[in-house]
Amino acid sequence: MSNPYTVGVIVGSLRKDSFNRRIAKAAMALAPSSLACRFIEIGDLPLYDADLETAEPPPAWTAFRQSLHGVQAFLFVTPEFNRSVPGALKNAIDVGSRPYGKSAWGGKPCAVISVTQGLLGAFGANHHLRQSFVFLDMPVMQQPEAYIGGVAALFDDKGELGNAGTRDLLTKFMAAFEQWVNRQLAPLA
Question: Is the CB of residue 138 less than 8 Å from the CB of residue 105?
Fold first, then answer.
C-alpha cells in the first residue's frame, strides 16, 4: 500500500499523563506502518448545546470536526467513569455527530481499548462506546478485544510500557486493527 490510512486516536482521559494516554502512545508506536496515527484532542470542546449550532458554531467545535473529517479511521482509548464513558468523551462524540445529517463519524472503522487501574479493564465503558458506534454507523472491530486492567503496574519508572504481555496484546491488537481498517476501506480505494 503506497499511502497509509490516517487514524485519529481519541483518548477519553483529559489528564496530560494519564495511563490511557500512555497506552495510546504505546499502541501508536506498535502500529503497522500502514496506519498513520495521530491524536485528536477533546479537552477544549465546549459542552454540546444545540443553541450554539448556528452558522458560526464555537471555533473549537469547527476545528474538532475538521480533524475528524481529516482521518479515515478511529482508535478510542478510554477509562471508565461510573461504569460508563467519561463525560468529555461522550461530549466529543456528540459534537462530532452534529449538525444533524453531517456526522463526521459515519462509516469510519474504529476500535476500542479500555484502560483502568482496577481489575475489570473498563468493560462498561468499552461496551457503552460500542452502543454509540452502532447508532453512528461506525463499524467497530469485534476481535480481539482490549480490556487493560491493573494499568499502574504495567509501566516502568520512566513511564514506558514495561509489561511484555501488554506489549504483545497491543501489537496483536494493532495488527488486527490494520486488517480491519483495510477490510473496511480497501474496496473504497
Answer: yes
